[in-house]
Structures are given as structure tokens and as C-alpha cells.
Amino acid sequence: QVQLQESGPGLVKPSETLSLTCTFSGGSISDYYWSWIRQPPGKGLEWIGYIYYSGTTDYNPSLKSRVTISIDTSKNQFSLKLTSVTAADTAVYYCARRTRSCSSLSCNLDYFDYWGQGTLVTVSS
Amino acid sequence: DIVMTQSPDSLAVSLGERATINCKSSQSVLDTSTNRNSLAWYQHKPGQPPRLLIYWASTRVSGVPDRFSGSGSGTDFTLTISSLQAEDVAVYYCQQYFSPSVTFGQGTKLEIK
User: Fold this and answer.
1) Is any Cβ of chain A less than 8 angstroms from the Cβ of B2?
2) Contacts of A94 in chain B (CB under 8 A)
3) pLDDT of B8-38, one tens digit each?
């Protein structure tokens, strides 16, 4: 049974760093890309970035300068750090598992098949 | 970025009637090497995480009722609920994964008329 669970502070001050951790269970860590997605209040879903177990990452260009995603394979955890936050970063943050499909030549990243419950992070002084 | 545009923004349908949600991408999401469209549909209810319903534009996830179906190719896609049930009230999102930098539609809110 696949489970993902976000944890971290629910309140962050402006200009500080938002830090969240996702703990996952079920499935092989190397078969998936581990991702962060957020949803500001009343708005749609925004992909933040992903990490592969090898440490390979990719980020949304609009957030790339402020985002770092890391992974601890020994603990089945991956983490998100978002620096210099403002009120615009207030959102429900989800961690999710992204599938991949491979041919003899390459692997492609696909859809998100499992999501955590989400955690609301509010940026306010 | 590939821009995903859903229509309508909201939809009210009577119980037992058909609901149709459209999704248009700013460029084709068809992978010509595999002939598969990199398009997924999610159902999102308040207080819950999004739930994957459909992937590769038309493949239903195991356990999803067969009243949900996906169709389309290239840039135009449709999610159809053949007979609306009360538990289908939710916001529905399409998402392209043709590009590693995935993007979602703005969402369609589905309600009971």
C-alpha cells in the first residue's frame, strides 16, 4: 500500500525559508520521481519540482531560483526548501509520486499516481 | 510551457445525466514514437488530495467507475461522466506530462443541478 505524508511548519514568516518533508512507503524508490505540487487558496495546481533517487532534480522555471529538493533514501523521505517566501507562497503543499515509462533508449516522466494528504503553509508575520 | 485550458470553468448537471469537460493544450501532447497522448485527468474533492482518474488520455485507473471515460488526441481532450452521481461533485483537472515541466488546467467545478 502506497502512502505519502507531508510534515513541517504550518506558518512561515515572510523572507524566511519554507521547509517540508514527505515520508513515503510502498513501492520501489527507484521506479518513480518524487515530486512537490502546491495549490494556493482558490487557485489551481502548480508543479514545483521533482527528485529522482539518484539525486537528479528538475524545477518549475518560475520557482527554480528559490527551490531545492533533496532526498534521503535511507529514511524514504524527500524534502522541499523554498527560500525568501512571500504571501504568494501561501498554499496547500502536496508531495506526490510521479511514474515513469522506459524504452530501450530512454525513460519519460509520466503522471502522478499517488499524492499525500497535503499540508497548508501560511506565510505571515 | 504548455498551457492547458479547460472549459467550462464550472458545470451543473442533473443526477444521472452526462457531464462533459473539455481540455485544450497549447501544443500537441501526442508522443508520435509511442502514439500515446501524455494527458491525465484528476478529481479533487475538498480536504482530499487529487485522485488520478485517467492517464494516457483514455486509460482508466483500476477502481475508477466505468462511468468515467477520457477521449481525444493531439491538443483536444474530453472527460465524460456518463451518468452523474452525487459523489462525483468535485473539481476536475487535466494535466499534460508531455513536457517534464508538467502543467495543469485551471480546473472545472462540477456541481449537481
Assistant:
1) no
2) 49-50
3) 999 999 999 999 999 999 999 999 888 999 9
